[in-house]
């Protein structure tokens, strides 16, 4: 029988695993609990076991050349072997623990990995993004992607921060997730990926 402490760890490490399929739709691979596992030759992997039957939902090596992105409090996304993956955490603390472990393995500072933190300090308040609501997500995606293509990344990055945009998008994400709306999840993934890529070009 699990102790109260074990139950608490299980709750905060509870995640949903998503993978983007060939039709650019998000597949829900199941709900389980994530841990970091040490293997041979100092390999560290993220392992998710199903809460239903204990089968492995995800076994992903944390690689130096993999770009991970933590989207605010409860979402970690990355690409590996041409697959786009995401972990959606039930609790913020569990996301922080796994994020810190990823950064530790990669030799990164977990507090200095948000690509939006490095934009200039000059205020840019003339760019108004669409209201972060479910009905506007396609418009949001198009607006963000258009500004990236127009080489206006710094202005876009500043606007996202000034308008406290990402926490609002996370609220939209959880609403869409509760509805199991695969198409909207796909659009939201494109939005988050575009935001993360702002300072990668």
UniProtKB/TrEMBL annotation:
Residues 119-128 have a biased composition (Acidic residues). Residues 140-200 form the Serine/threonine-protein phosphatase 4 regulatory subunit 3-like central domain. Keywords: Nucleus. Residues 106-130 are annotated as: Disordered. InterPro entries: EVH1_PP4R3, P4R3-like_central_dom, PH-like_dom_sf, PP4R3-like. Belongs to the SMEK family. This is Uncharacterized protein. It comes from Oikopleura dioica.
């Amino acid at each position: 029988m699990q102790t109260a402490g074990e139950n608490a760890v299980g709750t905060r490490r509870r995640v949903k695993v998503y993978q983007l399929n060939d039709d650019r739709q998000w597949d829900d691979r199941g709900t389980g609990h994530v841990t970091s596992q040490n293997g041979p030759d100092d390999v560290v992997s993220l392992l998710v076991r199903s809460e239903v039957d204990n089968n492995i939902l995800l076994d992903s090596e944390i690689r130096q050349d993999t770009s991970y992105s933590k989207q605010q409090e409860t979402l970690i996304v990355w690409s590996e072997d041409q697959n786009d993956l995401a972990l959606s955490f039930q609790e913020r603390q569990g996301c922080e623990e796994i994020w810190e472990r990823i950064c530790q393995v990669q030799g990164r500072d977990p507090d200095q990995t948000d690509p939006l933190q490095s934009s200039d300090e000059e205020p840019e308040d003339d760019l108004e993004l669409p209201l972060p609501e479910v009905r506007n997500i396609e418009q949001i995606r198009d607006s963000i992607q258009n500004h990236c293509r127009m080489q206006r990344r710094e202005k876009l990055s500043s606007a996202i921060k000034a308008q406290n945009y990402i926490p609002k998008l996370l609220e939209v994400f959880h609403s869409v997730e509760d509805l199991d709306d695969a198409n909207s999840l796909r659009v939201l993934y494109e939005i988050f990926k575009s935001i993360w890529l702002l300072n990668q070009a």
